[in-house]
Description:
- The chain has helices at 2-24, 43-49, 75-89, 93-105, 159-164; strands spanning 51-58, 63-72, 110-118, 135-140, 145-146, 150-153, 173-180, 196-203, 206-213.
- It is α+β, with helices and mostly antiparallel strands.
- A hairpin with a 4-residue loop joins strand 4 and strand 5 (145-146).
- Helices cover 27% and strands 27% of the residues.
Amino acid sequence: MPERMFSRTIAVLAAALAGACLACAEPKVSLGQGPREYVATDYQTVLKKWTREKQLILFSDLEDKLTVTATYESWDFRWAYVVRYAADYRLTIEQRRELLDRTLHETEDTHEFYVALYGTNWRWTDISRPTSAWIVRLIDDQGTETAPAKIEPIIKPGPIERVYFPYTNVWRHAFRIRFPRVSGDGRPTISPNARWFGLRFAGAEGNEELHWDIEDPSNRAPTSVASDRSLPR
Length: 233
């Protein structure tokens, strides 16, 4: 029994250390729009750029209370996604253009995240239910906090979710979470002055935050004109 407990302790500490190292390596992101020069093979790099993961571990009882992995489906991410999807499904020129237009248009009204989470209690981690142990909020460093407009559970993730969001698995709940871009009083839900934005998961068992650090606009390279290789054909 002592050996088992020791092994479990080491595993938990290793997971926490790995998470800390991952957080140190997270790149800053740009919320700028405009054409991109992506090809299908760029998708994994862009996915990593827009994905964050955190674990809430209670060392008192050595339990992983909540592991969350989330991808912010930004303008930049969506462009790369469509390029990859169009290549995989061999879409026609018109189909690709329509998909890109529709996908980018969705960013005008909402901030959308693809989220997969795991906890020791399966029912408590279903954040689409009122009985969930957790609530989620969109936050930024300016003190803005926004509740979701919609939490859509993905009951049975299929090939698209498992391939394009490979952290999806049978042990995790998967959701699409949408937040309004503008609050009821007319203020942006991510402040124009924000240095970071993120998701906060909070409940009686603790809380954790996933952050996306925003590039300083003064250091941002100008958006390039999309070349023929990236535009849907």
